[in-house]
Amino acid sequence: xxxxxxxxxxxxxxxxxxxxxxxxxxxxxxxxxxxxxxxxxxxxxxxxxxxxxxxxxxxxxxxxxxxxxxxxxxxxxxxxxxxxxxxxxxxxxxxxxxxxxxxxxxxxxxxxxxxxxxxxxxxxxxxxxxxxxxxxxxxxxxxxxxxxxxxxxxxxxxxxxxxxxxxxxxxxxxxxxxxxxxxxxxxxxxxxxxxxxxxxxxxxxxxxxxxxxxxxxxxxxxxxxxxxxxxxxxxxxxxxxxxxxxxxxxxxxxxxxxxxxxxxxxxxxxxxxxxxxxxxxxxxxxxxxxxxxxxxxxxxxxxxxxxxxxxxxxxxxxxxxxxxxxxxxxxxxxxxxxxxxxxxxxxxxxxxxxxxxxxxxxxxxxxxxxxxxxxxxxxxxxxxxxxxxxxxxxxx
Length: 396
Known about the structure:
Strand content: over 45%
Strand order of the largest sheet: 1-10-8-7-6
Largest sheet: 5 strands, antiparallel
Number of domains: 1
């Protein structure tokens, strides 16, 4: 059974038991496992968090917590100017999803300190993992999770009260997601996900990168459209990220686990049809984890697409820019490798999965990723990244 919070945004404190352990707190008829209600900030990080390697002066570590559990696959969402919501998965390890929990934390000072854990959902009897979070500008929030082999999303107007799970894809095979919901033409929402014919990746023969569309603000989702497809394991398509560039044009990067590369894809008709624009040069030899594309502006007001990704070979968290116009005209060759910037480095190669909140006015991003220290221990890290040099803008 999956338990999901629908309580109002009140951070519930645990009652300390005589043994000093966690206490099950029941509020509004729902169950939470809570450990304290303190704030986690720079001063309360463990020594191991303090030892993380920051590669550039433009990067500041805002927060890190070491809970001795496997905390990963996070999503960072903007609630208001200084308020951030962070959803992430807590489990046993990178590929062990039974008994997982979806956790929530909140910051009201731009990521410098965070409330203690709030449990969004958990399951003891089946795989329960995620999260993929997103927020439509000025509109609803979404958190996508897997329950068993099925993909669902939870929807919230303000990031406090959440809907019942809404199915994205519940057909045969296995479906999962990492890419965020984005808004495309005239209020239509697009949700990327991937599908394979078997739950076990070693047994599956068919692999598809897909997108689903909603025309009612995410309350229901239409049958999906295939972006890329492989019927014979020649490509193992999975996680993807997309940006809408106006006038029906959408650019995306799709991870190919067999080729260990990103394929760049383009649609010029609001996602109805897609073309493969080729494999991205900067992903060559990097064995990358899922990308995260962000739309930004440079000093001249031109649209720039930023790709945040983890180079698993070098165990680095990186960001690389490309002109939106060049991405449409030149395809995969448009990425500016000379401007690539390293944000931080990781302990082990199974780290990364970045999520970003970007502020065009300040040319700064708040970036979240996770660092796997051991097979059963991974930590969430939050950074502030100054992109003034990359985007050519002043950051006063």
